[in-house]
Amino acid sequence: QVQLVESGGGWVQAGDSQRLSCTASGGTFSNYVMDWYRQAPGKERQFIARAGTGDISTWYADSVKGRFTISRDNAKNTVYLQMNSLKPEDTAVYYCRAQWLGRPGYDYWGQGTQVTVSS
C-alpha cells in the first residue's frame, strides 16, 4: 500500500510561480510512474503531467506544456510539479497519482492540494 501526500498548494496571483510536492511512502517509489492531475470546480479530473520511472521521461497536457515542469527525486520518494506563469484557469485541486504499470491494483492517489490563482 502506497500513501501519497501532496503539499505546496495555496493562493497566488496570476503570473506567479508555485511548486507542488508529492511524497510517497509504503512502496518502492522507483517502480511507479508518477502523474499529476487536477480538478477544477464542476469539471472532470484531468491529466496534466507524467514522470516515468526513470529520471528523464516526461509527458504533459497541452494546457500546461511550456509552463509546468514535472520532476522526481527517487532518493526522496518525491515528485514535484513546478508551475510557472500561472493563470486563473489553473485554479483547481491538484492530485498526484502513482501507478505500477502492468500491475493491476497498484494505483494510488493522494488527497489533493488546492491551488487558487487570482487575476
3D architecture notes:
The protein has 119 residues and is mostly beta strands. The chain is 0% helix and 52% strand. The strands form two sheets. Strands 2, 4, 5, 6, 9, 10 and 11 form a seven-stranded mixed sheet that branches.
Blueprint of the fold:
Layout: E1 3-7, E2 10-13, E3 18-25, E4 33-39, E5 46-51, E6 58-60, E7 68-73, E8 78-83, E9 92-99, E10 107-109, E11 113-118
Parallel strand pairs: 2-11
Antiparallel strand pairs: 1-3, 3-8, 4-5, 4-9, 5-6, 7-8, 9-10, 9-11
N/C terminus separation: 40 Å
Percent strand: over 45%
Catalogue the unreliable spans: none
What structural class do you assign from the helix and strand content?
mainly beta
CA radius of gyration is: 14 Å
What shape does the CA trace take? Answer: globular
Number of strands: 11
Write the H/E string, N to C: EEEEEEEEEEE
Number of helix segments?
Answer: 0
| Largest sheet data | 7 strands, mixed
State the helical fraction.
Answer: under 10%
Mean pLDDT: 95
